[in-house]
Each structure stands twice: as structure tokens, then as C-alpha cells.
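[job 4417] fold queue: 2 targets
>>> target A
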Amino acid sequence: MRGYIRALLMCTVFAALSGLYVYSTLFEANMSAGGNGAKRVYGPPRVLGPRHGDPDKAGPQSSHRHNRYIMRQRGRLEVDGRRRPQPSMHLAVVACGERLEETVTMLKSAVLFSIKGLQLHIFAEDQLHTSFMEALESWPAFIRSRFNYTVYPIRFPSDNAAEWKKLFKPCASQRLFLPLILKDVESLVYVDSDILFLQPVDRLWDFLSLFDSAQLAAMAPEHEEPRIAWYSRFARHPFYGRTGINSGVMLMNLTRMRNMFFKNDMTSVGLRWEELLMPLLQKYKLNITWGDQDLLNIIFHYNPELLLEFPCQWNYRPDHCIYGSNCASAEDNGIYILHGNRGVYHDHKQPAFKSVYEAIRKYSFGADPVASLLAPLEKQLLKTTHTYCGKSHALFTKALGHGLARIDRKAAHVW
């Protein structure tokens, strides 16, 4: 009798445990199906964490408007019931002050030539947000289908926000904080607002596949000739290589940047990216001229193995032609990315650069690219041959012609 009771108790316990298991399984299935489980929330872009203090809150904010905007963009991914895959390339730019039109023209060139879809990350002062959205929304539907975009507020660590914002050009040092803000992005191309793509962003993006296991960024040298390069003649701080690097076009593996411990001249141990920036600024702020670019030069001086160099044709500036042509890769293949620093898009000092900028700015989407862009540009460039850069005018259209030839074939490259 006692054995019978023991067996009955064991069966009762086993039945209870089985019931709990079935209930647990059903509950988990409900959670994973959406039930009452965690839901993905689409909110404003992430800002710097508490390690850096609260973000600078200069200017009025409207997170509600931003939330609506994110959701609206997300909805565009479905057309006629067919869901398009997310764009695979990320492009970031920072715009403050009077840089709206220049930045929109840069974005126009990126979208015009690119093959795969683009995700645009636009960091701008609050008063520029509506203007950016209106400009991009005004583009034809067949162009808008090639990209998504998000407009972010300018954000620096609150305890040093004013110092970072005014370090060089307004807000330019925002690029240093992209790994800490875009935490869900693995890799991106950062460009200054005065960049013009004359070839698809895809070709620059392909440099990511050339990174070895350590490399986490790619940039072009500041100059090709040390005897006339700025850093080798005037820098009062360490810099990368023989001539330094120019950060106007920067390919970044943000995941690696977040995880790396960087060698430095301040501590005997490596520092993470977020630990490195402020001490570096405090040490060198009286010795740097070009702001955040100088800080990047210092970082990669001590960590050269982390950087991949790409040729100067991917960051062609007036420095490459004002003293005579000194960019061999552009002479061989043409200019792939034009960098109009020194304000040359807006004055008359380098008319060849301004001619390219005006040609792209005035081009109407959908018009014949050869008749409406290339032919007028070639004619205008012939008027610039009294300058050294104008004497090299063939370099400005050599690669551009090939890029424009691809535009009419984009229909074959859907997302």
C-alpha cells in the first residue's frame, strides 16, 4: 500500500511539471510571435551615452515630428505590396551654417551616380532640418526610390559641446562621434559637404572588401609630394605617413572603431574611441590648425596599421592642380570624387571646380545626362584653361563621362 501511494505521488509531480513545461512553451511562442513581447521601437537617433554627459540641447527639438518622419520613411519600403530590401550603403554628411545648397548638391551627385540603394545620414543644425526634407522630397519619385534618409540633430558631449562645435568649421568635428551615435550601423562613407561624386559611391564602398583584419578606416593622403605638402612643412603635431591624410572623404568601419583599443602618447595602455577624443583635444588643441582632421592624423600616426590609403582620385582637391598636376591616379583614370575645399565652388579662384559644381547643381533629374550635363560642362571647362587646374580640364570629365553612361542603365539594378 505504501509503495502504491509513493508511485501515485510521483505521477502527480510528473504531470504538474509537464503542465508547466507546456505552458512555458506556449508563452514563449506567443512572445516571439509578437503577443505581449518586446516590440521594435522606431524613435529618434541615438545620442551619446552618459559616459559623455547629456547631449548638448541647443535649439528647439521636436521628437514627435522626428518619430513620424522615421515611420513614414519606413513605410516607403513597401510599394504595390512588394517589400524592397534595405539599402546596403550608408553615407553620412554634416551641414551647419550656409551649407544647405552645397550639401544638397553633394547628395544629388551621390544619388545620381550610385548603383545600389543608399541610406543617407544627414547631421544638421535644427533650423536646416525642414529645408533638407523639403529639398529631398521635391526630387522625382524615380529618384526618391533609390534612397532613404534620416536627418539628425547636431550632438556633442554636453560638458565640451561648445568647444567641439567650434573646433574648426562649424560642426565639422561631429564626424568624430559617428561611431558613438550610429550604434546600429556597421560601416559608412563620411564626406564633407563640399564633395561631388563623379563615380558611383559603390566603387568607393568596395574598398571595404580590401580591409585586412585590422583596418577600420580608409582615407586619401593630404598630398602626394612632401616638399609642398602642408603637414610635412608646417604641422606642430604627429601626423600620418609622409604627408598626412585628408578626412574630407572617409570610409569607416564603425563596429571596429567602437571595439578597438588605440595606441596613443598619453597612456601606456590602449584607449577606446570614446575615451581617446577629449584627452587628445586637451593635449593638442593649441597645436592643431585643421581641427578634427588633425586629431585623426594624430590617432593614425600611432595606429598606422588600422588605416587603408586610397588614391588621390577619390579625394581630388585644388592642391592637386594649383601648382601643376600632381595626382597620378587622376591623370591615368580621371577624377572620381571632387573635393571643393577652400570655398572654390563659390568664388572665382578655381573656375574649373566651380564649373563642375554648377553643372551638377543645375542638372534636372531625368534630362539627357550627356546633352544636359556633360556637353555644357566640357564647353564651360574650355574657358578655364588660363588656370593650372583648368589646363587639366580633361581629368574633370574623363571618369564623369563613364559615370553618366551608367545612368540610363540603372533600371537593371533595382534594390
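>>> target B
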Amino acid sequence: MNVKFSLMGDLLWQSLPGGIVALGKFDALHIGHRELAIQASRAGPPFLLSFVGMAKVLGWEPRAPVVAKCDRRRVLSSWVSYCCNMVPEEFQVQFSSVRHLSPRQFVEKLAKELSVRGVVAGENYRFGYKAAGDALELVKLCEEYGMEAYIIKSVMDKNRCSVDMNSVANSKERGQVSSTRVREALAVGDMRYVSELLGRPHRLILMATDQERFSTGQYKVSAPRSCLLNLAPKEGLYEKCSLFLDQENVVQCRVVIDSKFVHIETDYGGLGDFFGSLNLQFLHIEFGDSCT
């Protein structure tokens, strides 16, 4: 697909002629987000529109992402069999440049500056300044600007009683799969539930720095929590996990998370030698279905 770039004020936009853009907040890349990508791929080359800098503009507390930034491409590539053998692409827009746009102005920007052919959104999608626009208005405006609009039903959470959903119950959700639910499940350490919501095991990524290094032994690796690149489950012991040493070497392990460290314990006796020979900067851990 021919991707062009044009500078609009202080914002660099991608021009995506013929592309189909999925609209939403794609923090967790859960099964509901995957459904948006599937619908987009059925209509054309799929793209996920992400906003950058929302927390800073809206004054939200900084928080760790569910999916590490460096791991998002791997997750999207795993959707290829669902998405007509295409890998959904992401592109980012500075939230500060669009937050004051009316619903009409936002759709006009998609049509005229991105040159997309169509959009996909969930039935509860809100857009425009102060979330003034809904899915019905999105369809109407897209028709006016010559774009296709696909509105899909929410993917509902069939196991929404699996964790304490007090904070979710007080939110604006109506029982659909959401990033909030993923965070709630991680907060109580229900990794089986997390896997169901994500459609894959949760992968935790840690990165060593000059200031914070991994401590390795023959059967154990420990890393300070400050090395975390994404959201860890609650403190506790997690059985049946996998440590990815590289693309070919995967070691079964247990993970112990405490207030200061993430400890990876394994029956494999060569961890120290392996780490010493490669000087690994990253740890990739996938959690099994066991709960703390």
C-alpha cells in the first residue's frame, strides 16, 4: 500500500489511500480490539489509529501499558491468520492536535488528510470534543464524506464474575471486553482470565539498563521492578510460566513477584552460563493459566 506523509501544522499525518482505519483505545490489544482489526481487514488494508499524549493532556496519572511498546508488533503479527493474511499497522496522532475537533471536523480530517476509504468502530464508540459524537453520527458523517463505516457489536465478557469487578462496575462499561477488565484481572493475579480477555498469554518484558542489571544464577534470574516495560500482575507466585531466552530457546519457569523484584526460577541449570555468554538486555516472560 502506498503510504504518504504530509505536514499539517505541527502534526505529521500519514496519508493512507484505500486504507480502513479501526478507531478505539488500543492499550491492551485484547480480543475486542482484534475484532475491529478483523472487520477492517475484510474491507481493505487494516490500520489502528492510536492517540499519543492523552494522559499528559488530560492530567491522568502515568501508568504502565498492558502491552510493552516494543512488543506490539509481535502481537499484531499474531493476528495475521484472522486478518486475511495481513498484519494490522498502527499509526499515531498527537491527541493535543485533535482533542478540540468537533465530530464533523474529526471525520473530515480522516477523509481529507488521511485519505482513508473507511472506518471501523464499536457500537459504543464516542468521538469528537467531549465525546459528543456516537456511532450513529459516525456513520452519517462518513457517508457525507464518501467513506464506508462499519459498526460492530461489542465483544462481551463471558466470565465477568471471574474477578472482583467493583471498579469496573462503577465505570461506563456494559459488560464488554475492555482494557480496564484486563487491568483488573492482572491486579488480582487471575492469569487464566487475563489470557481469555487477551486471546493469548500475557507477556511481561523487562529491560536491563546501565543502572539496573539482571542478577543471574544457574537456576534463577532476578530483575528490579524498575526494569518493567509493561504491567505486571499482582505480587505472588506464578507457576507454569515460560522464559524466552531467544526465538529458539524457551525455558519453563516459576515467577515470583514481590515489591522490589521479579524473580524467575527454573529447573534448567544453565541460566547463568546462557546469560553470561549473551549479555541479554531483555527478559520475555509469558504467564500460564495458574493463579496466585
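[job 4417] complete. Note on B: The radius of gyration is 21 Å.
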